[in-house]
Structure formats: structure tokens, C-alpha cells
Amino acid sequence: MKLHFTTNNVQELIVLKLRKTNFLQKLKKMKQNTIISITTACFITISSLIACTRSQESNVMGFAPIYMPENQIYIVDVLSPRSTETAGKIYQYGQGLTLQVDVSKGIHVINVSIPTSPQKVKFISIPGVSEIAVKNNILIANNFNDLVSIDISNLNAIQLVGRTKDVYQANQGTIPSEPNAFFECPNEKKGVVIGWEKKELVNPKCKTL
């Protein structure tokens, strides 16, 4: 029996994926007690023992937040091709195109009509993106709290055609996903954290479990 999916079905599937991901992230953080502040008094159990003071300034490898102004996080734009920073899910579209998520940043549109020589042709900037699907030439993706619908039937005229607001509670960027890693504590005054950059840090105050 052949199953037929509507655009609404695709949206519902993405919502379920996002809500499941969000739930698992929250559960994981509950188990890990989220963030250990190194400057907090050393009242911790042996099972979660870490250094909680630093008497001298030191440099360590860790993660620094990548910020975006709050008034820009819901801007969807079509840009020139760029290098992939954080490779995510891949979606085969038609016979000659592949869509690849660049986690939290956007989607690479790749021409694979010549399999031995794939070429990036567009980059669709979608802050906070992690999940995508395509139905009837409509790309559906998450844009932080929202779901957006993008017409990709004409790659020279890609356009946003719909937005469903506040579909779920976004949880991207809260802390780095790597365990036992130092990171700069986010500063909400600098904007919304959309990702993390690995670099040398000076006396970081936060660490994941």
C-alpha cells in the first residue's frame, strides 16, 4: 500500500522530531545537573568532582559562544555558497540535488548531478536549524521556535512562503554538547547563542559534565 503525505503531515513529523529532541536534551541536562560553575563553592560529590576554583589565570582549550542579535535570529535569507562548519543531516532532493544542514546556521544546496564532482550552489541561512524535510518543492525547517516553509522549486528565486510561530521551545546553544569541556558562560546581553567555537580560553568559569 502506498502512503501519501501532505505538507501538514511533514510539518507534524518535524514538530514531533523537534519535541523529542528537546525532551531528550532536557532529560540529559537533568541527569547531568546541566552546568558546573567553577567559581561555585566546592560542595560537590566525588562522582561529579571537578576543580571549582582557579587561583591563577590559565589558558585552556574550550568553547566560546557564537552570538547573534535577537532581532536577526528569525531572518531567513539566501546567500552565496560557503564552507560547511557543523555538518548535520542530509536530504536527497530530486535526482540532482542534495540539501545538507549546517547545524544552527542554515542549509547548503548542493548540485550532485555529477556524483564525482558535487558543487554547492546556494546557502539558505536559517538560524537555529537542525531538522528539514521537503514536500512538493516546499522545504520545511525549524528556525529556533518557529517552523518555516521555503519554496525551492526555482533555485534562482528561493523564497520564504510560510511561518508557524512558537511551535516548540528551542533549546539550541544552551551549553556545548561535548562532555567535560570548559566554556565561556553565555552572556545574554551579547545576544542569542546560536553555536559554539572551539578555541583557547583564558580562565573559563564554566564546564560541562
What does this structure look like?
The chain is mostly beta strands. It folds into two domains: 7-69 and 170-208, no CATH class; 73-164, no CATH class. 12% of the residues lie in helices and 38% in strands. The protein has one helix and 14 strands. It has one helix at residues 7-32; strands spanning 35-37, 59-68, 77-79, 87-93, 97-102, 106-111, 119-125, 132-135, 138-143, 146-151, 159-164, 182-183, 192-202, 206-208. The strands form three sheets. A five-stranded mixed β-sheet has the order 1-14-12-2-13, with no helix packed on it. A five-stranded antiparallel β-sheet has the order 3-7-6-5-4, with no helix packed on it. The longest helix has 26 residues, at 7-32. The protein is globular and about 55 Å long.
How do the strands and helices of this protein lay out in sequence?
Blueprint lengths: L6 H26 L2 E3 L21 E10 L8 E3 L7 E7 L3 E6 L3 E6 L7 E7 L6 E4 L2 E6 L2 E6 L7 E6 L17 E2 L8 E11 L3 E3 L1
Parallel strand pairs: 2-12
Antiparallel strand pairs: 1-14, 2-13, 3-7, 4-5, 5-6, 6-7, 8-9, 9-10, 10-11, 12-14
In short:
The chain is mostly beta strands. The protein has one helix and 14 strands. Strand 4 and strand 5 (97-102) form a beta hairpin.
